[in-house]
Automatic annotation (TrEMBL):
This is DNA-binding response regulator. Residues 2-116 form the Response regulatory domain. Residues 124-222 bind DNA. Residues 124-222 form the OmpR/PhoB-type domain. The modification 4-aspartylphosphate is found at residue 51. Keywords: DNA-binding, Phosphoprotein, Transcription, Transcription regulation, Two-component regulatory system. GO terms for biological process: regulation of DNA-templated transcription. One of its GO terms (molecular function) is transcription cis-regulatory region binding. It comes from the Bacteria. PROSITE patterns: OMPR_PHOB, RESPONSE_REGULATORY. It holds the Pfam family Response_reg. One of its GO terms (cellular component) is cytosol.
Amino acid sequence: MAILIVEDEKKLVDILKKALKKERYSVDVAYDGETGLEKAMTNSYSIILLDIMLPKKDGFLVCKELRERQIHTPIIMITARDSVTDRVTGFDAGADDYLIKPFDLKELTARIRAVLRRRKKTDSDIVKVADLIMDKKKHEVTRAGKVIALSPKEYKLLDILISNQGEALNRKKLIDYAWGPTFKETNHELNVHIRYLRRKIDSEKNKPLIQTIRGVGFTLKE
C-alpha cells in the first residue's frame, strides 16, 4: 500500500517515512500543498497524510480541491492546530480523520488501519485507476474531475475492465459481460465499442489506460 505524506517539516517526514516503511507501506512525499495536490491527482495512494500549514497551498484547500475533483483517497490531517473550528473545517473539507501534533507513531498507524477498514466497506462502489474514477452507486464516470458520458455497452465494458485492473481479459469474457453469453459477434462489435470507449477515456490530453493484449484481449492499467 502506498501512502502520500504532504508535510513541510523534513525532520518529521523522515520519522514518518521510517515508521511507515517498517509497517511495510511504500511512501511518497510532497513538501508543499501544490505538489501534494498534483501527486494526489495523478498517482494512486491508499491514504494521504496531510498537514494544514503548508507552503503554496494550505491543507484545507488541498483536501477541498481533491474532493471537488472526485479524488476519494482517504485523508488524515496531521497538524498542530487543535481548535474545534480547525477540526470542523478539516472534516467539512473532506478529511477522514484529524490527528494533533505531537502524536505517538503507534496511534498514527492505528488510525491509518482504522481509516482503511472504514473505507474498505464503501470502496466497492468507487473504483479508481490513475485519475479515472467509476462511481457505481451514482453510475458516474469521471477523468481528471470531468464527467464522461458513456453508452450502456461502454459503461459495462469499462466496469469489467476497471474492476479487474491490470488483468488481461479475453474477448469472450468481455463479450459475455457486456452483451450476454448467448451473443454471437458478427461485426467486430467488441473492437468498435472499445474504440468508442478509448476516444472518451483516453483522449489526447490523457495518459492511455486501455491497452490491447495481442492474442488475448484488453486490459486497463496505469
